[in-house]
DNA sequence: GATGAATGAGGTTTCATTCAT
DNA sequence: GATGAATGAAACCTCATTCAT
């Protein structure tokens, strides 16, 4: 797997061969992703979509069988990304934390580059059929399990602080990344790759063992630590 | 402001005086928050809500004027929390990073304790009227600005690594926290306070200056740093 | 079972208790039965029905959950009739042919008195869900099997001509009766009971052993018989 | 008219001359008849038909001008049969009851051999234009009138029981025959001709004068007669 | 306070039909 | 002859909301 995720045309096509209608498919799915991002899946009507692509409402049904197909097609894009990510990363010969960092970087880059897609993936999953939700959830769970394992491996290797709770740590770094679609704008200052680097770095810093030396007070003055008792009830 | 956020009955009441119907208001708003969380605001019908509280659909209109009122009431709960958080934290005499850590801890505790509320706040904001959205966004922006300022202050004080981008850092820690509603379950192993402590700690560790000493390998093995060139195109 | 089939209000009611909306239910189902009879189920729109009962299209959904419910409710009327008919007739102490005649008479009377219902039952069954179709078909088959058995019993008792094929005979008499809805009009000359008597009599005459005596020419001039060779290919 | 009805290619053709596309016409009309039989005219879409014949929906319009054309073409097949039947039977020199038996036999044979056609003819007539319906109804009425006249002639000749109501008798025998499409299957035990013979025989037996002699108990034990008072309320 | 009938706008979907290619 | 994109009307259905009781 390369650093960038760019499957050719990710959207479903009905006729298998090359087809001059492929542009329409892409146009429809891309517009749908944008509208779902802007208003939410349920608040986007097919009338909205038809208007945006310049078709009649009914004409959309040449390209889809149901509105849910649109959402599913979009979530499949993300789903397939995670599947590839799961397969790809183990091929490389890296330390656990390096692997983790690599996965998070790729994930974050994808989350920014395809923020419409990840927004649909996370916000409107409940609009998919039970069956389809389960598929998505299974892959998501496998992905999270892989990340947790890397954290544990990193702890065994001394790369990750022993007091880190792998579950919490993974929830935390995923939150950072999956939150990107809430604020990212393509016209913004930073590219998806730059954002990915920043977040991968922040994640690694959060996980690494706490420095205990004295030449610098970074570690000492941390105003509280994981051992700190929780705030008063 | 105390460590825990617990405004008495946060839900709106139409008749201003005390009223034996207050329970109904609370029941309706709490049930709505749960349903919105489970299915999304738009996919939850007032019939669903009426069924869940044991009323007829029409009877709900004794308690609300519109469906949006429910969503607004719920988001107001979060909104008011942020307003209080903004006011409260400066009263304390703490270093910037300590203040930041305190805000994040309170925020995270709220995010877990009221995960239904924060989910509605972030996922269904686009269903509010323009006017109401703007109000919410303004407060959110003020909150984020305050956090960024604390990061910058921390950098000035040497508590926060100089190479941290305040915008990215704040987006990152907010993502961690606002993601809590995606995985938190009240019946889970950790209490909101414990979760809050963990995330506050992780955040602080991510922000603090990188340790450069040699007595310990925490710093050396960081597999990449913020200066690392982004992944290849 | 009495000779006439008159269950009080045959149409479904949602709230179980007595209800002032029962009239509406009856009005809607009766109008639906009439419209389905006139134009067929598929060619009758809910708009047609709404217009006919003076409601808005959407208001019909207070009384039904789907258009198919209307068809199902109507076919249930016939379905229940056949179930009662199956149970009821054996209680009487009659000869096989007398029982058969009694069932056919009751069936024919029902077919005329409720010609809207039987028309829907037979013409639009394919619009019901698979599940519901199967239910109906099972009962229909049980009913036909009972009639065939009565024909066979009649043959054993010498009441029915031995050369009669029970399957064909039952198909024939059912055809007679189920065809009633094609021509019956309530304002016509004959009442359902009169029609039922005529058809029961015709059926019995068709089944009885052929007379072979000579005092009368009834038997002799039958222009062909079951033994006649089929028409030329 | 021969005993079997087999007009060469009954389906309409647009280009009047002979044409290698005739097979397509036949295929389309026959498939349509089958589909209409299985699901009803209104519930069969042109997409269903196109799929079944291996064409695209739009391509059907090379062969038809409208969906109704298909139904009309099919009903015309039956319509023409009845016209031929009306013309043909009087040429023969037979007694009234023999003529009647002959017509019913031919009708029944047609009804079985072309059960798809007769099903469409009777079930979906209401989907034709007013004009076309009227044409069909006129022919049907003429046909029924001819049958009634034969019954009356048979009564005058003493071949048919005097107490038979010609209208009812004709409705009855037509019901038997027109019901055939509800149960006939080509792979069944009996051929259309055998079925036709059975039903013609049953009809004749039902109509003939009741035997009043004593050598045999066929007549005496008829459990009720046309004079019997109708069943109790 | 509560009901439930009724509304009316708008949602997703189907489908016969047209037409440029 | 055949395609398949596109249309537009109309279908079934949902639902927030109103209101007389």
Automatic annotation (TrEMBL), chains A, B, C, D:
Superkingdom per UniProt:
Bacteria
Which residue numbers delimit the DNA-binding region?
45-64
InterPro entries, per database record: Homeodomain-like_sf, HTH-type_TetR-like_transc_reg, HTH_TetR, KstR2_TetR_C, Tet_transcr_reg_TetR-rel_C_sf
Q: Which SUPFAM superfamilies match?
A: Homeodomain-like, Tetracyclin repressor-like, C-terminal domain
Region feature (Disordered): 1-20
Q: Which GO terms describe its molecular function?
A: DNA-binding transcription factor activity; transcription cis-regulatory region binding
Question: What Pfam families does this protein's entry cite?
Answer: TetR_C_24, TetR_N
Keyword terms, alphabetized: DNA-binding, Repressor, Transcription, Transcription regulation
Q: Does the keyword Repressor apply?
A: yes
Coiled-coil spans in chain: none
Q: Pinpoint the HTH tetR-type domain residues.
A: 22-82
User: PROSITE patterns, per this entry?
Assistant: HTH_TETR_2
Protein's name in the database:
TetR family transcriptional regulator
Organism whose genome encodes this protein: Blastococcus colisei
Per the UniProt record, the lineage of the source organism begins with: Bacteria, Bacillati, Actinomycetota, Actinomycetes, Geodermatophilales
